[in-house]
Amino acid sequence: MIGLVAGFALPVSAAWLWLRAWPLRGSPDFAPLTAALAFGVGVGLSSLTPMWWVARGLSLGPAFVAADALLWVSLAAVALRRLFRTSVPGDLASPLDAPQTVLRVVRGAFALVAVMAVGIVAREYLAAPHGQWDAWAIWNQKARFLLRGGEEWTALLGVEFANPSHPLLLPAVVARLWAYAGEELTIAPALAAGGFGAATVAAVMGRLDVRQPRAWLAGAVLLAPPMYAQQIISQQADVPVGFFMVATLALIPEDPLALWRHALRAARTLLLVGLLAGCAAWTKNEGMVFLVAMALLASWATLRHGRGRQLLWCAVGAAPVLLTLLWFKLVVSPGAPLYLEGTPGPVGLLQWMFDLERHRTVLRLMWAPLLQWGGPLARGVVPVGIVAAVVVLCVPAARRARTSSLAVLFMLASYHLVFVLSSLEPETLVPGTVPRLVSQLWPALVLAVFSGVRDPREG
Amino acid sequence: MTTDFEQGDAATLTPSPGWQLMKVAGGVVLAWCLAAAVSGLLAVRGLPADPMGGFDAEFRAFSVLLPSSATVGYLEPFESAGSSDAVRMHYAAQYSLAPVVVVPRVGPEFVIVARGTARPEGDPRLDGYNEVAVVPAGHRLFQRVP
After folding, report:
1. Is there a contact between A227 and A435 (Cβ–Cβ < 8 Å)?
2. Residue A330 has pLDDT above 70, yes or no
3. Which of B15, B23, B29 is opposite residue A221, by nearest beta carbon?
4. Sign of the torsion angle spanned by Cα atoms A78, A80, A84, A86
């Protein structure tokens, strides 16, 4: 158990020290957001070391643990050295302090909702310590291949039902934690899952500024749907990819012009945007669509302000993850995902794309699970959230909060398009997939909506 | 810049109608959050235990008898082969025995016969195989006759 804790703490602490030593000053780098980013950067990068290790034909044994620990301790030491040498300014002052009574009430309600969400998570874990279906059929199983297989880890490609082309961030994270623990504890993937859930809440609330009631309200709304709490502990990759999406969005300042006033700050922010969006792509195929969306957004934001060269930082941030992903996708497991196998050629795809009947069928099939998502007393939150996100997109007063809304709508449109272009029967594919996809977008949707909620005193 | 608070000493600011409206809306949302969370907590009270932990331990007994990296056969149930339970059992064998690859067919050197999958009167699909191990849960391991 000590090994397991060390496996978590080392990369997250090192990332946190780096974020403190080289802060994103001027961005809303409040403590919860910094903690969430540290989790994302630490866990995301720590998924690369076991991959590079097994790619060399080595086992994830004590030698790996020693080398990995040395790497993170060294990185932490570099950041500590800088922290001792320089004074790092504290967090920015909040523009407005909310009335204490309101803040206390909202915080109290959030605490109650959070305690109940933790209760759901604990109960689900006790009932299913190996996770839900896809956890043991795909993600934890692949972690076992990585840990037990040594140089034979690529045998996992022979398990057709486990979607061999799926990216490996989550299995690598779990395999690494098992290597640190010295045994395959079910609590390791559960802790990783809980960590991603907590970091998601911290990212959303940190971005919205925890000194404002809207942040606590958003946290409560995020955790309220029981299906989301269940997804957190399902040990599947949907909450992790959703975390990387929302953490990336949380980095993007409301006022891009403020970012460009400080070249170093802009560089650090773009570096992290690239890294976290890259981690989303390394977690699930849906993350690749998100990466494309972020690349388009970053290109637009930099080029329109004549800062095209700053895009390089985005690429630098994404490079370590993307190179690993490209190696896996092009060398280890080339091939389309199951849902895109057997699709017709370009002409056939174009026909499908413009086939209104296919669009209508997919929309009809998507609607029911979108409406049902949430669980008891939470049905309907997704359509309401989408409408609110569209309002945020359209209302001039909320124009500064458009990024998350655009990202959510772009992702929804992409999922729809993939359903239209898939060779699988939409009646089979869509109803079973949509609830998981909603869990990916739920945090970004909550962030989008609450970013548009302004304190009336802000004018 | 306009403000929805009346001007004056900070301690005596009077909330505007906009602020009051937000408080009411926030209160409604919070009440919904609490109700949804309570309903979720109540729903998971009687959650049954997932059988995967048991399956994992049952199939694990074969791991000492199998080569560390191999393709092992898995006998599909003689009836209801595509049922959720049958698929789950096959996937459980795979989950338990990784990095061995468990394929749903007969032919490899070793074949796993999960309980209830072979015909009770003797399954012709296992002709040419000998039983080499059986676990208390009823799963059996067969090896091709040399």
Report:
1. yes
2. yes
3. B29
4. positive
Chain centroid, CA A21 distance in Å: 24
Report d(CA A371, CA A366) in Å as an integer: 9
Interface residue B94 vs chain A (CB under 8 A): yes
Distance CA B113, CA B94 (A): 13
Nearest CA in chain B to A117: B37
Q: Residue A293: its pLDDT value, please?
A: 92
The candidate with the shortest Cα–Cα distance to A40, out of A290, A214, A249, is: A249
What are the pLDDT digits (tens) for A77-102? Answer: 999 998 888 765 554 545 555 668 88
Which residues are CB-contacts of A453 (< 8 A; sequence separation ≥ 6)?
A214, A217, B22
Cis peptide before B99 (omega within 30 of 0): yes
Phi, psi of A303, deg, nearest 5:
-70, -35
**Among partner residues B30, B53, B95, which is closest to A109 by beta-carbon distance?**
B30
Q: What are A298's two structure tokens?
A: 């970053």
Q: CA A68, CA A172: separation in Å to the nearest integer?
A: 13
Look-up of token digits 């802060």: A23
Q: Is the pTM of this model over 0.80?
A: yes
Evaluate whether A185 touches A178 at the Cβ level (below 8 Å): yes
Q: For residue A37, is pLDDT > 70?
A: yes
CB pairs under 8 A between A and B: 151
Give the ranges where chain B is alpha helix by DSSP (H): 17-43, 52-60, 84-97
Q: What is the predicted ipTM?
A: 0.89
Q: Is B144 helix (H, G, I), strand (E, B) or coil?
A: strand
Q: Does B23 touch chain A (CB under 8 A)?
A: yes
